[in-house]
Design brief:
Chain A is globular and about 85 Å long. Chain A is 48% helix and 1% strand. The longest helix of chain A has 24 residues, at 181-204. Chain A has 19 helices and one strand. With 994 residues, chain B is α/β, with parallel strands linked by helices. Chain B has 27 helices and 40 strands. Chain B has a seven-stranded mixed β-sheet with strand order 6-5-17-16-15-7-8, sandwiched between helices. Classes of the chains: A mainly alpha (372), B alpha/beta (994). At the A-B interface, helix 15, strand 1 and helix 17 of A face strand 1 and helix 25 of B.
Chain lengths: 372, 994
């Protein structure tokens, strides 16, 4: 594996330079409500019901530390587990695992309503995670959720880029003085390019492969915010293959119609999309199908094979890669989905590292896991 | 089907400033070279192209089109499997069709099938590509115009009724049909048209066997030959491991018998007399080259030796001498058969009925009937008769036939009587075709009513007593085609779909004969799931030998043409068989297991004859015979093992109307070859010919061979390198070579494999060289075909190749070559020479012992291929573009389609490894032995390849690790391969030393 270490070093150097422009974009004065202020009821519930055994970021007590629990368990699972822990510890594979891990205490079933449970999960979810040494740091959803607008980003000057520009300018002038006009001219072209890039051109033009922020218009203004956010639908109820197939898949029109056949349709938001969907649904029988052609948002290159099933089955939250989809009306790519980005996580949670309890199997760094 | 675009404009993206500039530069200079000025222009154009597009790298605009309705059990991205029956030939092996997103992408053998038992030959596996052949007939046509099914039904029905009213016959010409529902559709059609006549005819197949049994035993039956019960198999021109009768079934039984001989000392001996070097002869323990005309005399002599040795000779006379095999040897063969005491088996592939009757007598005399020659539970795989076709042609000529319906066979091409057929067709009023793919017969027909491909159709088959096979569709029909059985029913006035008819027939005929299921629905579901139904059929009555033992009147089988210096043998090749799949690029590019020629059928000439004619390999010769006025031209390939005075050519090539692939890219823009070079030669006119004349033309033709050096000795030095190792039974086979490379200095620190370590074991004692694995690998791994010219430049892309080596005695090295086969694929060396030289780390070692190739990292230096001692790495010299969308549907979405400029090679089917791990993980268990099988191992009819985790002490590959026959190829180089070979055990039997 010596090659990986070598690569890692060079990546680190590269990343240093790449990070320079980003420094300017950090909003140092951002203040946020603390979780306890944002969810006072849930905080009270936690103190009464949970704090005897659990901490949030304070390490293990009788039960596991709940910091980041929302990242290692799916919301749906937590919704079921919290009110029915004894049953889960008996019948659910993850529950059984927990029971084995903490044999001395059994978590009681908590008398919480569905809304209270959901609130509690949101409360747990709202804690910032400071990764311990060697632990995986999930992306910061808030930042990812609102990437700066092009105008904002254009205003960001990249100090690193400017330094490089100035250095290049010096080199160009030097060459000119040494009466080497051709290299000097070439250098000046580079100076112009570097200057343009660091003064904001980079927000207009992205580097190939990095599609972060990609948010194409869809044929139907389907809102994930309404379905996954307001209605609280689980991701898997529509993307049904995500836990058993390499692809999550877009649901068939039939899936949409299962509900939309029966719900009221005078909602203003359905005025454009519903007729289109009904047309598609009606076309299933008439020999000239009119399926809905969704614009693809997340797209890996053909030589990279990502397996949804493996990740979902190992309790990785969809949000780790897809961001807070439940807040988005139109889906937007929040991560670069580059290989380096994948590896950041895979290295932190590598199967070679033993201190990661929150994976049933470790992540692989094998090339052939994705490239074949 | 343009799998390949190769000419220069396509090397660069067309229409871009880049290629325009390059083309301009070439036109100006009149040469392809780039001088500096043009290079700069080229370069500036590329900058311009970049800037015109802007430096704006937008994400690719792709759409996702989900289904309208959700099918049952559908999960996008997960394969669904259907059990069905292979439609490539009447042997009707069981297949499992792998479908992804409702389209079949690969066929694998069905392990539950009693005949094929999980194997599938190259042609069967390639038949999935025929489905996506864009030159298939796309809908009904009447007199050259596309019409609707309603219209064509009305016209055909009117034509058939008029024929009936006129009192003329309706003839239905088909290949072997044996499924109960299929036959019932034909019966219903015959009932509607009382003068209808059903003729079954197979272009290539053991038709003489049935005829011979009618003569000797009074009833035309095709016995089921049971190699699994035989201890001595004597083949007379029967290529039963290649193309004859049911090769997948025979290969498994043959390989099992060989291994029993090694492991359990069970007796087994395979002797072959043959008129060309076939796969079967190459694998025999002892092989005799016999000219085809002498085969009858040889059989007669063998019969007499048997009778004499048993003391049953009618006249007591000495056996007539065979002119081609020594008397002692023949007597030895007879003695071995007698010693086997009824467990011998003589199979004969000759199409000469007289020879077959003699063979029947030998088998009966030795008591083989009912044991190794099963007449009570016979085979129905080939029921056709050439005689009936000739009778039909006579009737057509006499004007007795008013309407002719041809379904699934090609009498205007695949028979020497084809000119008579085409001539007689003029006297037929209505000509109707039910064939789905274009062929030479279909183009002559008034009405074309194309049948489905077997993967789109419902159907059934009855390959042998005891098994009824079901064919079920794996996708909705791609084109406006209709099941041929349904067409027949429609014309007979039955408004039943093929599916309804099939269910009805099975409900009435099959369901009552079983007892397991109480309701038809549960029976039907079970039958569909396993691909058919094992039926306890009543054994047919035994038929005794009738008549005496008289010798044939004419000792030699002279054939129809007697002038000429050479005897001619036309044979079915393992790649193209009778030529029905000639438009299949995988099969065209599949190297013949013996000649290693692709994209054509050279004329095989004995090494003894070639120098006398002044012929070198590739010399174009002209063949003429009394049988045909056409002069055939073919390039010469010097083939060791051919008897002196005999030449041979494969059938199925040179088809004019099969499509562009069969004609080897005739479109001018793809083809820098002259047509006569690329097309292959059509030897059908010479199928029954005895003798031919050969004249050198002085020109030469192109033979695209994938292997150009045939010996295991190094050239020049003659140093022996035992790559495909043969050992004597008593010999400790690996000769202590394990660990031979240990002392070498190595650049690697070594690897530790804590978890799985994938490893493969290939048993050369089982391998027949049939090349099914080559096509399996091609289908699984999206391997492109490159065309004849590129193959001739050794640029074929097969990840797995079958090496074939000749060796033999010093005296006559080429007359009686010993042939060794060796599947050669990436050896996944622990100390891989390729890994050390890659400058960009595109080929690296992983934790499980795989040598992985990362396409997106590869920059195409080809250092790795240079440094690989096994020569298994393949380079994409071009984008082997698949321009037509239809054939692309066969691509496996789990495997990257490689682009120009990257290296590729066997991955041990890493996508299957990943799938196996994923599926085991989903069930919460560890990967078990047998969960993961690469495509080559899955398909192997002889079960020669074993794959697994060598660190798992329960795995079969671990068990084989210490097999005394095990060795690694080129172990002394210290590469430490993960592929182990098991040496072939040579049971030397000179036969003469009785």
């Amino acid at each position: 594996m010596q090659f990986f270490t070598r690569r890692a070093v060079s990546f680190r150097i590269l990343k240093f330079f790449l990070a320079l422009p980003l420094l300017a974009s950090v909003d140092a004065f951002a203040t946020k409500d603390s979780p306890r202020d944002a969810f006072p009821d849930a905080a009270a519930t936690f103190d009464q019901q949970c704090a005897v055994c659990h901490t949030i970021g304070g390490g293990e007590k009788r039960g596991p530390d709940l910091l980041g629990v929302t990242l290692r368990r799916r919301d749906n699972w937590l919704m079921g587990y919290i009110p029915n822990a004894p049953e889960y510890q008996e019948n659910d594979p993850l529950g059984r695992e927990l029971a084995e891990e903490y044999p001395d205490v059994q978590m009681p079933s908590l008398p919480l309503s569905e809304e209270e449970t959901r609130e509690l999960i949101r409360f747990l979810d709202s804690f910032e995670i400071e990764p311990p040494e060697g632990a995986y740091a999930p992306p910061e959803p808030d930042k990812a959720a609102t990437p700066p607008s092009p105008v904002e980003e254009a205003a960001m000057i990249s100090p690193g880029g400017l330094i490089a520009t100035v250095l290049l300018l010096g080199l160009g002038l030097g060459l000119w003085k040494m009466k080497r006009p051709t290299p000097a001219k070439l250098t000046m072209v580079l100076v112009l390019a570097a200057g343009y890039w660091s003064l904001g051109g980079r927000s207009v033009h992205t580097l190939p492969g990095n599609d972060r922020g990609h948010s194409p218009e869809q044929p139907i203004a389907f809102s994930h915010k309404v379905h996954a956010g307001d209605l609280g639908m689980d991701c898997l109820s529509c993307h049904a293959g995500a836990d058993r197939s390499p692809v999550a898949a877009i649901p068939a029109v039939e899936n949409c119609m299962d509900c939309h056949r029966t719900i009221e349709s005078d909602d203003e938001r359905l005025k454009d999309g519903l007729p289109r969907m009904e047309r598609a649904w009606a076309s299933r029988k008439n020999g000239e199908p009119e399926p809905i052609r969704w614009a693809r948002v997340h797209n890996l290159p053909d030589h990279a094979h990502f397996d949804h099933g493996v990740h979902v089955r190992n309790n990785m939250s969809c949000a780790v890669c897809h961001g807070p989809v439940e807040t988005m009306d139109r889906v937007r790519q929040t991560e670069s989905l580059s290989m380096g980005w994948c590896l950041d996580c895979h290295r932190q949670t590598s199967r070679n590292q033993t201190n990661m309890k929150w994976r049933t199997v470790g992540a692989t760094e094998d090339c052939a896991a994705c490239h074949f | 089907m343009s799998f390949l675009k190769r000419n220069n404009p396509h090397e660069l993206p067309t229409g871009s400033d880049l290629s325009d500039a390059l083309r301009e530069a070439r036109e100006e200079d009149g040469a392809a070279s780039l001088d500096r000025r043009n290079f700069m222009r080229f370069l500036s154009a590329s900058f311009a192209a970049l800037s015109a597009g802007g430096c704006d790298f937008q994400p690719p605009r792709e759409t996702i089109v989900p289904r309208l309705t959700e099918p049952e059990h559908a999960a996008t991205g997960v394969a669904k499997w259907y059990a069905s029956t292979c439609g490539a030939c009447p042997a009707a092996c069981g297949v499992l069709a792998k479908t992804r997103e409702e389209r079949p992408i690969k066929l694998e053998g069905n392990p539950d099938h009693p005949l094929s038992r999980g194997g599938l030959c190259a042609r069967g596996q390639a038949s999935v590509l025929d489905l996506y052949d864009s030159h298939r007939l796309k809908g009904p046509r009447a007199n050259g115009e596309a019409v609707s099914w309603e219209k064509i039904d009305a016209e055909v029905q009117a034509a058939l009724q008029r024929t009936r009213d006129k009192g003329k016959q309706v003839a239905l010409l088909t290949p072997t049909l044996n499924g109960p529902a299929t036959l019932s559709a034909v019966e219903k059609f015959k009932a509607a048209y009382p003068l209808a006549r059903h003729v079954m005819w197979d272009a290539v197949g053991p038709t003489a066997v049935r005829e011979a049994f009618r003569k000797t035993h009074g009833e035309a039956r095709l016995p089921r030959y049971r190699i699994d019960r035989a201890s001595v198999v004597v083949g007379l021109d029967a290529d039963f491991l290649g193309t004859w009768l049911s090769p997948v079934e025979f290969m498994r039984e043959w390989a099992d018998a060989r291994v029993r001989r090694v492991d359990a000392d069970a007796p087994f001996l395979h002797l072959q007399f043959e008129s060309r070097l076939s796969v079967t002869g190459a694998n025999a323990d002892r092989r005799f080259a016999v000219p085809p005309s002498r085969m009858r005399r040889l059989a007669d002599a063998l019969l007499h030796h048997v009778l004499n040795l048993k003391g049953e000779s009618p006249s007591g006379e000495a056996a007539p001498a065979s002119t081609s095999v020594k008397t002692e040897a023949l007597e030895g063969v007879a003695r071995r058969l007698i010693d086997a005491q009824g467990t011998g088996l003589v199979v004969c592939g000759s199409e000469d009925v007289e020879t077959q009757t003699i063979v029947n007598r030998i088998n009966t005399t030795l008591g083989h009937d009912g044991r190794t020659v099963d007449l009570k539970r016979p085979s129905y795989q080939f029921e056709g008769s050439a005689g009936e076709l000739d009778a039909l042609i006579r009737s057509m000529k006499d004007g007795e036939i008013g309407a002719l319906i041809v379904w699934g066979c090609n009498p205007a091409h695949a028979t020497p009587s084809r000119d008579a057929f085409v001539e007689a067709l003029k006297n037929v009023d209505w000509k109707i075709s039910l064939t789905g793919a274009p062929d030479e017969t279909t183009v002559l027909m008034d009405y074309q009513c194309p049948d489905h491909h077997a993967l789109e159709a419902w159907g059934d088959s009855h390959p042998a007593a005891g098994w009824l096979g079901l064919t079920q569709p794996t996708l909705a029909p791609l084109h406006d085609t209709r099941s041929a059985a349904e067409s027949l029913l429609r014309w007979a006035g039955e408004e039943l779909s093929a599916y309804e008819h099939l269910r009805k027939t099975w409900r009435e005929e099959v369901f009552p004969k079983q007892e397991e299921h109480e309701t038809f629905e549960s029976f039907w579901a079970a039958a569909l799931k396993q691909g058919g139904w094992a039926l306890a059929e009543e054994a047919k009555a035994a038929i005794p030998l009738q008549g005496g033992m008289q010798s044939p009147v004419e000792p030699e089988n002279a054939g129809t043409s007697s002038s000429g210096d050479f005897e001619f043998v036309a044979y079915a090749s393992p790649a193209l068989f009778d030529g029905r799949q000639a438009n299949n690029p995988w099969l065209q590019e599949l190297p013949d297991p013996i000649t290693k020629a692709t994209w054509g059928n050279p004329l095989l000439v004995s090494p003894a004859d070639a120098p006398e004619l002044g012929l070198e390999e590739g010399a174009l010769v002209r063949l003429s015979s009394d049988d045909t006025e056409d002069e055939l031209e073919a390039p010469v390939l010097i083939q060791p093992g051919m008897p002196r005075g005999v030449v041979a050519g494969a059938l199925g090539y040179g088809r004019p109307h099969a499509g562009p692939v069969a004609a080897n890219w005739p479109e001018e823009e793809f083809l820098p070859l002259a047509r006569d070079e690329g097309n292959g030669t059509d030897f059908y006119p010479l199928l029954n010919t005895g003798r031919v004349k050969i004249q050198p033309t002085g020109r030469s033709g192109l033979i695209a061979k994938t292997q150009v050096y045939d010996h295991q000795e190094l050239p020049f030095t003659g140093e022996a390198r035992e790559l495909a190792r043969n050992v004597e039974p008593a010999e400790p086979a690996n000769k202590g070579t394990h660990g031979e490379g240990d002392g070498h200095a190595t650049m690697w620190e070594g690897h530790t494999y804590d978890g799985q370590k994938w490893s493969m074991s290939i048993d050369l004692d089982r391998c027949t060289g049939c090349s099914a694995c080559v096509i399996a690998c091609q289908a699984e791994n999206n391997i492109p075909t490159v065309g004849k010219l590129e193959v001739s430049r050794q640029r074929e892309m097969h990840w797995l190749r079958l090496d074939r080596y000749y060796s033999g005695s010093e005296a006559e090295p080429d007359d009686q070559p010993e042939v060794s086969f060796q599947p050669m694929l990436c050896q996944h060396c622990d100390h891989a020479p390729c890994e050390t030289v890659c400058p960009v780390l595109a080929t690296v070692h992983n934790d499980e012992g795989l040598n992985v190739q990362i396409y997106n990292r590869c920059i195409g230096t080809r250092f790795c291929a240079n440094n690989c001692p096994y020569k298994v790495r393949r380079f994409n010299w071009f984008d082997y573009m698949r321009e037509e969308p239809l054939p692309n549907l066969v691509l496996n979405p789990d495997v990257t389609v490689r682009s120009r400029g990257v290296m590729e090679k066997c991955t041990f089917c890493v996508q299957r490894i990943n799938r196996g791990k994923r599926e085991a993980g989903a069930e919460g268990r560890a990967v078990a032995d047998g969960d993961i099988t690469p495509a080559c191992a899955q398909s192997c009819p002889a079960r020669a390849i074993v794959f697994g985790d060598i660190n798992d002490t329960d795995s079969r590959v671990h068990e084989l690790k210490d097999d005394p026959r095990g060795y690694h190829v080129l172990e002394d180089l210290g590469t430490k391969p993960s592929v182990q070979y098991l040496a072939r055990v040579n049971f030397e039997d000179d036969v003469t030393d009785a």
